[in-house]
């Protein structure tokens, strides 16, 4: 891509060719000149779309009717349509976000996940003929088998393919695919395998295509990351790209400006006043059992790091609690201290781990028996959640609101900061951690707030992003 202050019409044959089909693997970067304002507008719109996908993915079953309807209407609202004249925007905006989201592993993971979900939705919306065309255009030379072959293999196909239960084989297209292209389906024994080929029902072909898309995108992001030094040397783009990436996965709370501003003695009282429910629960379990399992140590340890505990304080905090239980100091130093240093980027790959967002808490590593990590609003039985909230003296009306709420995107450390602001305490913290974030004072007692509110927050945030980006370009 080239950037100029004025947009020029510039279409090569291959570019036109790319837009013939509604869907693409984004194998070729756009070659035209675009204006900075278009660059910015496209990027913000795609982020809006990806953010919607993220929100919908935790509120609805993917590809369910509601999910599809909402995604369709958001795509329309943002002008990401299937019409050929709109495909340019889709193409360019994807590549802009590659630049913004290739910068760290977390950003790459987030971007790949949303793009794969968008791709899944779009692929699913294609007419069967368009699907086949897409496969062929992208050298996935899979063909459907003939009616005769289907009849001959009927029993085998029905018995081996979950997807066809309830649907007659005659109504179903089957693709013949080399087995090495469908290892996931072979591994999970979901397909009929014969002479090096698997026979994949129409619905399952998406698995293959998605795997391919994910792999290509992951490689492409790694390659894009290598070109970052060149991009960063462009002073017009660097702040914009950084802003774009932060605007949508949110602040990562890894900035350690406030290290040492909290004393260990303050933690008990802070946990009652300013910790979200998940952290309060972890703190209480730690105090009661003098132990937390790995998932809990990671979730709580990174949260404490984010609110300002230094490595030395963290070691002291965990050691003093663990040795009150069954772990002696020697065992602590051998078995646990390493992982705490690891969390702070002092061991292993020396990754400076960031505190978990609500999304990460909710979607990864669900708690099992004996675990105390996770999000109580998502992982606790409603009755148990009610009891916990009563225990923490949440009013009955507050509790009933929690029961009605669905999911919104928050961050436990953001909750902590906002709570400190509301309480007017932690003035030092407030000054040090003065990060522009939307207000969500009540989220922990209210639970994950309603999805419409999430959308409103996202729009508000977008408006802010756009304003800031506008002023950036005016200043530049
Ligand atoms: S919504 Fe977020 S902050 Fe609140 S309890 Fe769940 S994970 Fe913790």
From TrEMBL:
Bilayer-crossing regions: none
Record keywords, A-Z: 4Fe-4S, DNA replication, DNA-binding, Iron, Iron-sulfur, Metal-binding, Primosome
Stated name of the protein: DNA primase large subunit
Entry's family note: Belongs to the eukaryotic-type primase large subunit family.
GO BP terms in the entry: DNA replication initiation; DNA replication, synthesis of primer
InterPro entries cross-referenced by the UniProt entry: DNA_primase_C, DNA_primase_lsu_euk, DNA_primase_lsu_euk/arc
Function, as annotated: Regulatory subunit of the DNA primase complex and component of the DNA polymerase alpha complex (also known as the alpha DNA polymerase-primase complex) which play an essential role in the initiation of DNA synthesis. The primase subunit of the polymerase alpha complex initiates DNA synthesis by oligomerising short RNA primers on both leading and lagging strands.
UniProt GO molecular function: 4 iron, 4 sulfur cluster binding; DNA binding; metal ion binding
Low complexity bias spans: 450-462
Pfam families: DNA_primase_lrg, DNA_primase_lrg_N
Record-listed [4Fe-4S] cluster binding positions: 278, 358, 375
Entry's Gene Ontology cellular component terms: alpha DNA polymerase:primase complex
Domain (DNA primase large subunit C-terminal) ranges: 269-416
Cofactor: [4Fe-4S] cluster
Stretches the record annotates as Disordered: 433-462
Subunit-level organization: Heterodimer of a catalytic subunit PRIM1 and a regulatory subunit PRIM2, also known as the DNA primase complex. Interacts via (C-terminus) with PRIM1. Component of the alpha DNA polymerase complex (also known as the alpha DNA polymerase-primase complex) consisting of four subunits: the catalytic subunit POLA1, the regulatory subunit POLA2, and the primase complex subunits PRIM1 and PRIM2 respectively. Within the complex, POLA1 directly interacts with PRIM2.
Manner of cofactor binding, per the entry note: Binds 1 [4Fe-4S] cluster.
Biased composition (Polar residues): 437-446
